[in-house]
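Limitations

Structures in this collection are predictions, not experimental determinations, and the ligand pose is part of the prediction. Treat each record accordingly. The example that follows, with flavin-adenine dinucleotide as the small molecule, is included so readers can see exactly what is and is not provided: the inputs are given verbatim, and the output is the predicted complex.
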Amino acid sequence: MEVHQTRPKTIRSRLGTLRRAAKRVATIAGIAIAAVLLLAYGMGAWGIRQTPVEHPAPPEFINDVTQLNPIPVAKIITPTTIDEIIEAVKSNPGPVSVGGGRYSMGGQTASLGGVQIDMRQFNRILAFDSVAKTITVQPGIRWRDIQRRIDSANLSIAVMQTYSNFTVGGSMSVNVHGRYIGLGPLALTIRSLKIVLADGTLIEASPTTNSEIFYGALGGYGGLGVIVEATLDLADNVRVKRHNARMPIGEYAGYFKQHVRDSTDVIFHNGDIYPPNYERVNAVTWTRTNDPVTVTDRLIPPDKSYRLDRAVYSIMADWPGGKGFREHVVDPLLFRNSPVEWRNYEASYDVAELEPTSREKSSYVLEEYFIPVEHFDDFVPKMRAVFKKHDVNVINVSIRHAKPDPGTLLSWAPRETFAFVVYYKQGTSAPERRKVGVWTREMTDSILSVGGAYYLPYQPWATEAQFLRAFPRAPEYFALKKRVDPTNKLRNTLWDKYYLPRVSPLQANADASIRERLDSAGTYARDEGQTFLTHPEWSIVFSSDEYAEWLHHHLPTDFPYAKSIAQFWIDYREAVSQTKNAYPFNSGYHVMLGVIGTSYSAELALKGAYENTIGRFSGWTAGHKLTEEDRYAADVASDYGKFIHIRPWYEYAFAAKLKGLWTTVPATGRAPVRKWERRCFLTLEYGIKSVYAGLITLGTHAAYAPEDDRMQMVVSGWTDAIAARHPNIKTVARIDSVFTVVAAPRYDEFRDAIRDLATSGDSVRISEVAGNHEIFLTGVAPRGWAYSGVGRDVFDVPLPTDSSRKRVSMRVPVGELLNVFRSLDAQRTSGLSIDHLYDY
Ligand SMILES: Cc1cc2nc3c(=O)[nH]c(=O)nc-3n(C[C@H](O)[C@H](O)[C@H](O)COP(=O)(O)OP(=O)(O)OC[C@H]3O[C@@H](n4cnc5c(N)ncnc54)[C@H](O)[C@@H]3O)c2cc1C
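Predicted complex:
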């Protein structure tokens, strides 16, 4: 098989070479920008206007506190009444997701291309009974707002998390816990709730009425309906005094049993395990007291400054010896006395104290493991081993305790449980994220080996098999969901993964070792953001095609140079808009795009200036007719356009074309002024490009090795018979009876291979392409064409050379890629043709 020089190599080669030529380019860029401005002005004067752009609003992204999970959605609705929520659920076919505070860390509040019901404006207190000690609220309310209301009655929330920023609905749907002793899951303190089901029905549920819905919705992650009302138990707002004891971790379980578990005076307790050795614990207990408060504020002031806290977290995470600094310096200072506070004060922490200055290159993230109390000592060495093996940057592991759950279907504490809350720092790049997946799945195996479970509001790295072992009643939950939401309207990333997976069946079905093998194979995974970033570079390729087509019928004088320059920058701006806040910033690639964009603009600007002055004059002398030289230039442009679809531009035989100009095109004939002007111009153009390309080729060969020329993907339903019908797609490895890794050619041939697969009638499904779940594609269509179907039309731009046609750009879930190709192929008669599928 012929090994093609690949476009990424083109890109990298250009990058390397152009970096080395940075100074020269900067000078050219300056001249170019001036020329572009002059030209744009000049062409405006000649009646050529800037391309009008149809530009729908950029997609809305739902993200969470980690900034790791941007999910493009079609719409966000912010209801303030139950009727609006019922209408939103009824009128949208799905996916419909529910968002609270958006602190869950794995896309639990959104589904690709769906509608999110953002509950944060639905946040009123409906009833408060200080005698019965209950409160009824709309679930978009945050704990902090309830605290403000009930504090004056000297009451507290019975169970909530350590921080008070979360919404009641988000907390109920996760079935959270805090540091409370003698309690456990929030479900223990919920009296009743009201919920809007997928068909818009509003029902009430409690342990005795519609109890299945009650125990399914608590901890049900928005999969059964939208909780629109909740009645919660309250507790007394007592004064609490802090004590702490440091000990080896082997003594902790005994200490807890003896001093904490059965004490009715203990309100809060947690044990902080010190990384990086995980050998010692600081057990922190807050007991009821009659002592006067030493902290007089009743709630933590909302405007408190957290500069110092953030600095300490940063030291602990990043400085050499930072973790020891915490254990041996910070904590001894922090715990040198025993403050007395109000319970509400201790329950009103603000997550702002944890917020780093930036989450661009790294982020702080949580995981949590639930271990039956009797297996505490078995689990700790396993946890330590995984952290150490993978060098995880753990900042803290906080131990909590929970009594058994009252019966929720997705219970994380079916029996008495210790929770290990892990706060760690991770990188945001794709390889660093995959690494987290690898160690998390390994940790999950350790958890399962001692009969434990893990927490679902965090990144959903576990395989489906692991999920089902950790949550053995999940099939009951799924059966209930099927009954109350038969069309699977209520979705989010969690349920897209574990319930009727639609994006990536591989993730859901494959076991951990397969996922690990794929993720750690250097040849498989590519960065998803590249699907958008490669688009501007292809825009130059398309422009070359258009230029070639133009030259066959027109003089180059009238080519829309300014529009073509604008096209590149519009495509670049869109690539930025699609990747901004969604993927880690790829500075190298942006520099490269900036450099090639500037040099491309300079070339077109200079050409435009020349063609509209001297070229215009010589064309006039030829009666605006094409000469042999013009035709030769058109043929070369076509040949060049085809060439750069598959090979780097600098490998093109400019010198041979120059020779051809002088040896094959007759030097005499009609319109001598035009002929000789063209000869001089083309000699200059081919000559300069030949020398420049030669220099780049030299530098490139010295610095870069060829890259992979195949794109791997995971497909299901791949049989030997199907493989024989698609010889351009090679079988790489059979994963199991369902999934196979196959390799397709890249670039134009990738598009063709996918189209063949889609239209062949073979029942194959793509699960992932290079580890990714979204892909970008463009096509050319008549101006009035509109796409309706899976995937999203992101933006359309009229073609510079023909405003009756436009280039349409779409982002498509890879799981739906074949369906999209089928559907687009069926629309070919309407004039649509797919020109490129951007394979990262
Ligand atoms: C810094 C930090 C500390 C944390 N500490 C703890 C802790 O101490 N204990 C603990 O248990 N957890 C803890 N968590 C996890 C946290 O409790 C959950 O992520 C919780 O879901 C956050 O609430 P939220 O309002 O942000 O919910 P969101 O993240 O917005 O939503 C969570 C889930 O609830 C669903 N949902 C939200 N509202 C509704 C509704 N009205 N009806 C139906 N479904 C709904 C969403 O669809 C989603 O699936 C912590 C998280 C962070 C970031």
